[in-house]
Amino acid sequence: MMDKSISYIKTLLAAKFPFFGINKIRELSRLVFEITKRDGIDPKSFIDGIEFSDYRGTKTSLIKLRYPQNFKTALKNSFYLPDINIEKNSCAVLEHAAFYPENIYYTAEVLNSFLYKRIRNLFAGSVFKEISSLKQFLKENKFSVQAYNSRRKNLFLINEKFDFFKSCPCTKNVVCCNYSILNTGYGCPYECTYCFLQGYQNVPGIIFPCNIEDFLDINKIKPQHSVFFDMPRVGSGEFTDSLVFDDITLFSEPIVKFFKENRNIYFEFKTKSINIENLLKYGGTPNIVISWSLNTEKMIEENEHLTPKLEERLEAAKKCAESGYSIGFHFDPVIFYKDWQKDYTKTIENIFDFVDGKYIKWISIGSLRMPAELKKTIENRFFENKILDEELLLCDDEKLRYAKQQRIVMYKTLADVIKKRAENIKVYLCMETSEVWNKCGGIL
């Protein structure tokens, strides 16, 4: 029905404004679609009520309705109005199911690896298929939103040769925390509405590297030092959740062992998972930080599909702290909605109900942002989402963000609540400009 409702809007506008060209109808359709979806009103009655007959007057009135908070102050090119294109069968699959891939693709070079042999035993019912290389497989198989939706059905086992360790690819013109990434896999089974991977990933499955031990070499790991922290930081969790597959891969074992022997470097596992049994078995040290991405209970329910609940994540954090690990938290993204301030304050209070502040190394804060093109992917996969109903503006980095002053208010609010509970915890902003940092008063 969603694609029909969009066609309906375009048809109604074309009938009301027969002399407008296709591009003008496209922009007006985008505005009418977003306004009527946000406000829950009938498109026909709304279009019938449009008073202007000229394009400029009509567009201006619709932008004012769509962006009431930023209409007067935002640049005209900040209002992103792409065509609406909803593909059939593009909705995300939100059914809880244990990870058990139907197809397992592997290259010949992994046959003698520990992980390949383990996967053979764990998933004996899967179909195993040898491929010459992942690159060749991608050339021969078309990728689509539907393929991304089916990614949990396919597992790729490869030897990583080039991209295991690298610097965090920061957005241009933002303050960089000099984070270094250990790439322990690619693809995530969770279905978060805002996830950048759904617009970035071009592999129709999950990738496990079978040669992680090749990269746990102090001569290969050359982390950058950051002024924000007292030691360099390395972490996993950029292109997959750090722990969600750990019961399968057992990657945490060699990683924990390596960084127990190299205690002058922080290693961070970033996760939404509660898959911590291996970590508890190994025991931690303060330079190994287990960090949870958190949100409010409402945002977890509406946008972080298939993930553990807030209380489950905090209980896992408590257990890891008691096992000798340091703890981190990431409020990224902070999402604006009616009760955001009350709900995020409650979430922060919940943190300290579970975890003593002395165990917490850092907390990061970043607001909802996305490459502009990701907006259309989110509409396809999560048509009923509410996060796109707010006023996201196109910024200089080609990302959609909340207005600068709105972001500053959100950051200062959360940082103040954190600092009241634990003044010495490092609080830093993720992917923000030096101007925003300065206006937040250097909240570190």
Fold and architecture overview:
By secondary structure, the protein is of the alpha/beta class. It has two domains: 77 residues, no CATH class; 337 residues, Alpha-Beta Horseshoe (pyruvate-formate lyase- activating enzyme). The strands form four sheets. The chain has an eight-stranded mixed β-sheet. Strands 2-1-3-7 form a four-stranded parallel β-sheet, with no helix packed on it. Helix 2 runs parallel beside helix 4, helix 13 packs parallel to helix 14 and helix 14 packs parallel to helix 16. It starts with a helix and ends in a 5-residue tail after the last helix.
What's the short version?
This protein is an alpha/beta fold. The protein contains 17 helices and 17 strands.
Key structural traits:
4-stranded parallel sheet; alpha/beta; pyruvate-formate lyase- activating enzyme; 444 residues; 8-stranded mixed sheet
Indicate the topology:
Blueprint: H1 2-16, H2 22-39, H3 43-48, H4 55-66, E1 103-106, H5 114-122, E2 127-130, H6 134-140, H7 145-149, E3 154-158, E4 165-167, E5 180-182, E6 191-192, H8 197-200, E7 206-209, E8 233-236, H9 246-249, H10 252-260, E9 266-271, H11 277-282, E10 288-293, H12 297-303, E11 304-305, H13 310-322, E12 326-334, H14 340-354, E13 360-367, E14 369-371, H15 374-381, E15 393-394, E16 399-401, H16 404-421, E17 426-429, H17 434-439
Parallel strand pairs: 1-2, 1-3, 3-7, 5-8, 8-9, 9-10, 10-12, 12-13, 13-17
Antiparallel strand pairs: 4-5, 6-11, 14-16, 15-16
Helix pairs in contact: 1-2, 2-4, 13-14, 14-16
